[in-house]
Specification:
The complex is a heterodimer of chains A (309) and B (413). Chain A contains eleven helices and 14 strands. Chain A has 309 residues and is an alpha/beta fold. In chain B, strands 2-3-1-4-5 form a five-stranded mixed sheet. Chain B starts with a helix and ends with a helix. The complex binds adenosine-5'-triphosphate and magnesium ion.
C-alpha cells in the first residue's frame, strides 16, 4: 500500500530525514519508533505531500505522490501530532467539515460522523464546542477527523500523547480495528510498549535514519537468543571489554564507560555462569540486572542512547 | 469540497458573532453620530454651507435669515447669500448647495393661518450639504409652524408694531418680547430639535420620500465594515497556519489555491451580505428614498466586496505575520477611508486631496451606492463603478491568490 524509497529532507545543516526506505502492507500496522527529533514527523509530512522531499519517492497504491498528489492524498488519512481542530465548532461540525472536504454529504456523512463519534467515545459530548474538551478528548477527535473518508492509508503521528491509560487502550484498539478493516497504518511513537504491542512491523529511527527494521520478534532476535545483562558501575569500556573477552558465551551488545549491555546465551550454564565470570573479573559494579530482551535494549544497542520520554 | 470550506466559515461566524455584530452596529452608530453632528456642531474639516436666499416677500423672515449668516469658531460656517431671480440660473451652475425661496406674502399668509410652504432648490451635484440645507429648512418650517400656532395672536401685534410708521412705545415692545420669549422657552424642545429628532418625526409620519444624511453616512461607513469583514476572513488563513489547520487541510486533496480562493469567495459573499443587511436596515428606517434598484445595489455590493477581498488578500500576503497583516491592512483601510469618503463626505475633503480619492475602493463603492440609493440616479447609474470594482477586484484576487500561495507554501517549509 505504501512504498517509501530513500526519502531525504534537510533543514539547513540538519539532515532531518536521511535515506529512509520502508513499506506498509494493507491490513498491517507499521511502527516508526524514535526519540524526539528522530525525523518521524518530517517523514510523515513528506508522505502526506506537505513538504517536498529533497530526494526519494513515495508511492501509495502504486501511485507516485510527486506525479499525482491529489489522487494519493484522497487515499490518505493524516492525524497530526499537534492537535488541529476548530475550537469554536462542535465535534459534529468539525467532522462535517472534514467529511465535506472529501465530498461526503447528507446521510452518508451523518452516518459516518455518528459512527466515528461512537468509535472515539465522544457521542455524548458531540454538540459541545471543542473548546470545552479536555486534552484527551481533543486527541480522540483529532484522530477521528483523519478517518472520516475511510482512508486506505492512515498516518498517525504520536496519537496517544497526553491521554489517560484507559483512553490509550481504547485508542490502540481503534487503531487495531482500522488495520483489521484493511487499512495500512503508519504509526509513529516514542513509547516502546506501544510499538511492541501494537505494531506488526517496526522501524527504529534516530537522527533521520532507520537503524533496524522488522517484526518485533526479528528485532529482538538481533539481541541474540537468551537474556540481556546490564551492568553499571565504575569501570571503563576497556575493562568491561576485557572481561567479556575472558568469559565464555557472553556477547557485548553495547559497551560504554560505566555501562554495559551484554547478551547471555540460553542454556543450562546461562545466567549463573555469566554472573560468575563478571564477578571474578573484578569490575567495580553498582547495579546488575538480568532480563528478557526488549526494544529498549535494542534501541540502546543501535543508537548508543536511551529512548527517553 | 469548495462549499464545505465556505460553509465552515459561515458556521464559525455564527459561533463567534461578536465581530460580525460590531461590523453591523458600527455603521449605525456612526450614522447616528455623524448624522446629528453634521446638523449641529463641528466636524474636523472647514465646513461651509452656502445657501442662496431668494426673498420674494422682502419681509421679516428673509431679513432674519439673511442675518443668520455666521462664521463660527469651530469652523462650521453658514453662508446665506441674498439673491434675486437670477438665483435659479446660478443654482444651475452649482454655485450654492441649496436655494431657499420665500414666496410672496409668505409672512402674512402664515399669520393668517393659510397653508404656506417654503420652497427649496437643491444642488443635485452635491449630496450631503443640500441634505443639511433641506433639514435646516425643515427646522425653520417647523419653527414657524409652532411659533404661529402657539403665539399667533401676539405675532399679529408684532406685525402691527413692525409695520407701524412710528417708533412703538418701549413698554409695549418689552411686554410682547417677554411673552414671546416665554412661549419660545416653553416650546424650545420642539423649536430646536436636534437633527435626530427631526428625522424621527419624519419617519414616524412617513412623509419623506427622500434620502437623508443618515442614509448617506450609513453608506459611507458600511463600506468600511465590508473591508473589515474581508480583513477578518483573509487573516483567518494566518490563524489556520498558526493552529496547524492549514497543514491539515493541505494533507487532503485541497490545494493552497483552492483554500485561498474559497476564503476570497467567502469574504466576498459575507461582505456583500453584511452590506445588504445594513442597506436593508437603513431602508427600513426610511433613510433611503423609495424606488431603490435592489438588483443594481446587490450587484454593486458583491463587486465591492470582491474588490475588498482581493485588496486585503494582496495586503495580507505582502507581510510575514498575522500581526503585521493586521497592522498593514488597518493602516490601508483607514487611509482609504479618509481619502475615499468613508470618514468625511467627499465634498468636505480639500480638492487637492480629493484627487487621490479615485484610487480608493471606498470612493467607487460609495459613489455607486449613493447614485443608486441616495441620489436616485436610476438602476444603471452605478454600472461604471460596479464594472470598475469587479475588474479591479478580479485583478487583485488573481494577484493576491498568487502572492498568498507563495507565502503559505513558504510557511510550510
Ligand atoms: N521546519 C523545520 N525547520 C528546521 N528544522 C526542522 C523543521 N522541522 C523539523 N526540523 C528538525 O528536523 C529534525 C526532525 O524533526 P521531526 O519533527 O521530524 O522529529 P520527530 O521525530 O517528529 O520528533 P518528536 O518526537 O519530537 O515529534 C529535528 O532536528 C528538527 O529540529
Ligand atoms: Mg514529531
Amino acid at each position: 500500500m505504501l512504498q517509501v524509497q530513500n526519502l531525504t529532507k534537510t533543514f539547513g545543516e540538519i539532515r532531518a530525514v536521511d535515506g529512509v526506505s520502508f513499506g506498509v502492507e494493507a491490513g498491517r500496522i507499521f511502527g516508526l519508533l524514535g526519540p524526539n527529533g528522530a525525523g518521524k514527523t518530517t517523514t510523515i509530512a513528506m508522505i502526506a505531500g506537505l513538504i517536498p522531499p529533497a530526494s526519494g519517492s513515495v508511492h501509495v497504491d502504486g501511485l507516485d505522490l510527486a506525479a499525482r498528489p491529489a489522487d494519493v492524498k484522497r487515499r490518505l488519512g493524516v492525524v497530526p501530532q499537534e492537535i488541529a481542530l476548530y475550537e469554536d465548532l462542535t465535534a459534529r461540525e468539525n467532522l462535517d467539515f472534514w467529511g465535506g472536504i472529501y465530498g461526503l454529504r447528507g446521510k452518508a456523512l451523518a452516518a459516518r460522523r455518528d459512527a466515528l463519534l461512537d468509535l472515539v467515545g465522544l457521542a455524548d459530548r458531540a454538540r459541545e464546542p471543542v473548546r470545552n474538551y479536555s486534552g484527551g478528548m481533543k486527541r480522540r477527535l483529532n484522530l477521528a477527523l483523519g478517518l472520516v473518508h475511510k482512508p486506505t492509508l492512515i498516518l498517525l503521528d504520536e496519537p496517544t500523547v497526553g491521554i489517560d491509560p484507559q483512553a490509550r487502550i481504547n485508542l490502540l484498539d481503534v487503531v487495531r480495528g482500522l488495520a483489521r478493516d484493511g487499512a495500512a497504518v503508519l504509526y509513529t511513537t516514542h513509547y516502546l510498549e506501544e510499538a511492541e504491542n501494537l505494531c506488526d512491523e517496526l522501524a527504529i529511527m534516530d537522527h533521520g535514519t532507520i537503524h533496524a527494521q522488522g517484526t518485533v520478534e526479528s528485532l529482538k532476535a538481533e539481541l541474540g537468543e537468551g537474556s540481556v545483562l546490564t551492568l553499571q558501575g565504575a569501570f571503563s569500556r576497556e575493562d568491561v571489554a576485557a572481561a567479556v573477552e575472558r568469559s565464555t558465551g557472553l556477547r557485548a551488545l553495547e559497551l560504554d564507560d560505566g555501562r554495559a549491555l551484554l547478551n547471555v546465551p540460553r542454556g543450562r550454564a546461562g545466567v549463573g555462569a555469566a554472573l560468575e565470570a563478571i564477578y571474578t573479573s573484578g569490575l567495580h559494579l553498582t547495579d546488575v540486572t538480568v532480563k528478557e530482551p526488549n526494544l529498549e535494549d535494542l534501541f540502546l544497542k543501535l543508537t548508543g542512547r536511551e529512548l527517553r520520554d | 469540497m469548495f462549499w464545505a470550506l465556505i460553509r465552515k466559515d459561515l458556521v464559525r461566524r455564527r459561533r463567534s458573532p461578536a465581530s460580525t455584530l460590531v461590523m453591523l452596529a458600527f455603521p449605525f452608530m456612526m450614522a447616528g453620530l455623524i448624522g446629528s453632528v453634521s446638523g449641529g456642531s463641528g466636524g474636523e474639516p472647514e465646513f461651509t454651507l452656502k445657501v442662496f436666499l431668494l426673498d420674494r416677500e422682502d419681509g421679516v423672515l428673509g431679513g432674519f435669515l439673511a442675518g443668520a449668516s455666521q462664521r463660527r469658531d469651530d469652523g462650521n460656517n453658514l453662508e446665506i447669500v441674498p439673491v434675486g431671480e437670477e438665483g435659479f440660473a446660478r443654482m444651475e451652475k452649482g454655485e450654492a448647495s441649496a436655494m431657499l425661496v420665500i414666496p410672496e406674502r409668505f409672512s402674512d399668509r402664515l399669520l393668517d393661518g393659510e397653508d404656506v410652504a417654503l420652497q427649496l432648490v437643491l444642488n443635485p451635484a452635491e449630496s450631503i450639504k443640500p441634505e443639511i440645507a433641506r433639514q435646516g429648512a425643515e427646522v425653520i418650517a417647523t419653527y414657524l409652524d409652532v411659533l404661529v400656532k402657539s403665539a399667533g395672536d401676539r405675532l399679529g401685534h408684532v406685525r402691527d408694531l413692525l409695520d407701524a410708521d412710528r417708533m412703538p412705545p418701549l413698554a409695549v415692545v418689552t411686554a410682547i418680547t417677554g411673552e414671546l420669549y416665554g412661549e419660545m422657552v416653553r416650546a424650545e424642545p420642539i423649536l430646536f430639535p436636534p437633527v435626530v429628532r427631526v428625522v424621527r418625526d419624519k419617519e414616524a409620519g412617513g412623509k419623506s420620500e427622500q434620502a437623508n444624511v443618515f442614509g448617506y453616512v450609513l453608506v459611507m461607513v458600511s463600506v468600511m465594515s465590508v473591508i473589515f469583514v474581508a480583513i477578518r476572513a483573509v487573516t483567518d488563513l494566518y490563524e489556520d497556519q498558526r493552529t496547524g489547520m492549514l497543514r491539515r487541510q493541505l494533507a487532503t486533496p485541497l490545494t493552497v489555491s483552492r483554500l485561498v480562493a474559497a476564503k476570497c469567495v467567502f469574504a466576498a459573499l459575507f461582505g456583500a451580505a453584511v452590506m445588504a443587511i445594513l442597506l436593508v436596515a437603513g431602508a427600513f428606517f426610511g433613510w433611503f428614498g423609495s424606488g431603490v434598484p435592489v438588483g443594481s445595489v446587490l450587484l454593486h455590493a458583491v463587486a465591492f466586496a470582491l474588490a475588498a477581498a482581493g485588496l486585503i488578500t494582496v495586503l495580507v500576503a505582502l507581510v510575514r505575520t498575522e500581526k503585521q497583516a493586521g497592522i498593514l491592512s488597518w493602516v490601508v483601510v483607514m487611509a482609504m477611508s479618509v481619502l475615499g469618503g468613508s470618514m468625511f463626505p467627499l465634498e468636505l475633503i480639500p480638492e487637492a486631496i480629493q484627487r487621490f480619492s479615485r484610487f480608493t475602493l471606498n470612493y467607487w463603492a460609495i459613489e455607486g451606492f449613493l447614485d443608486l440609493m441616495v441620489r436616485g440616479r436610476g438602476a444603471t447609474a452605478a454600472l461604471p463603478a460596479t464594472a470598475l470594482l469587479t475588474g479591479v477586484g478580479l485583478a487583485l484576487l488573481v494577484i493576491g491568490q498568487h502572492l498568498m500561495k507563495r507565502r503559505l507554501r513558504e510557511a510550510l517549509r
